[in-house]
Amino acid sequence: MSKQSSVGTSTAYEAGDQRNYTKADLESAKENARFEEGQPGSHDLGDKKDERSLPNKLAAAQKKANEPDLPQDMETFQSQKDSTLPAKAQGNVPSKGAQIDQELREEDEAAKQKKGEWGSKQQ
């Protein structure tokens, strides 16, 4: 029996497998590879597999409920007032659905104005 190992070849043990790095090299690599913390939108608040505690989930839900529902941009805000506006702004004819939505919205507004304000007025 020979005492020399015959497992593998010498090419399997080249310098790329094990290297000795200096502390300065390790620290600079650690700083460069550091993750940015707290990126907005990096977590789904409704994720059921999230490991946040129940009080933290409750606080996040209350915070979200207290935030005002504002549209993302001016175009969205204007399209809520006039369904045909996005198509008109681009020089196109509004779709049939957008025209019907606009007609229904105008009818609802006219009916609300005709009825007037009702209910308790809280100030």
Number of helix segments?
5
Oligomer: single chain
Largest β-sheet summary? none
Instruction: Report the structural category.
Output: mainly alpha
Determine the mean pLDDT: 76
Order of helices and strands: HHHHH
Q: Which spans have pLDDT < 50 for at least 5 consecutive residues?
A: none
Strand content: under 5%
Span of the ends, CA to CA:
98 Å
The outline comes out as elongated
The radius of gyration is 32 Å
The level of helicity is 40-55%
What's the β-strand tally?
Answer: 0
Topology of this structure?
Blueprint: H1 23-32, H2 54-66, H3 74-81, H4 85-89, H5 96-115
Describe this structure in words.
This protein has helices at residues 23-32, 54-66, 74-81, 85-89, 96-115. The chain is mainly alpha-helical and 123 residues long. It is built from five helices and no strands.
